[in-house]
Amino acid sequence: xxxPKLHILGCLHSDMMSTVQHGKTILQAMVDSSLxxxxxxxxxxxxxxxxxxxxxxxxxxxxxxxxxQLHINTLTSYVPNKQNDNPAATTVECVDxxxxxxxxxxxxxxxxxxxxxxxxVLNARALESxxxxxxxxxxxxxxxxxxxxMDFKNRASPNALICFEGTE
Length: 168
Prior knowledge:
Residues 3-72 form the F-box/LRR-repeat protein 15/At3g58940/PEG3-like LRR domain. This protein is of the alpha/beta class and 168 residues long. It has four helices and eight strands, in the order E-E-E-E-H-E-H-E-H-E-H-E.
């Protein structure tokens, strides 16, 4: 008997991300590469995080080399700048080759948020769209500043779109 292949995994919460168990496989923030094969088929992942901690999310993404959609619900909380340091120079396979859509809920536009978005804009070569749900009123000037901060003109995927959604 063959177990069905897992294609969608949701919802991982940042409080549980240091150790998450999937069957007999245990995910940890720093994941052994031998575990990656068991999650190779996951195409859609939903994460709930306290603040957009880029390095933390990248560690999780390493477990999902064929991920195509990433949904992140960020809970409002203070994240020290050291938590958002630029990621190590190593590549993340799903970001480099497969990730097509990133959706972020509760995008504030503050430095940790736009640095988080900028990572995907500059590195996701297959990216088709990034939807940023903003929980407050914003205008075209604010949106333009955000796109500049993300270095959108130098995006890795020339056809990628960034959409801001929410109250205008």
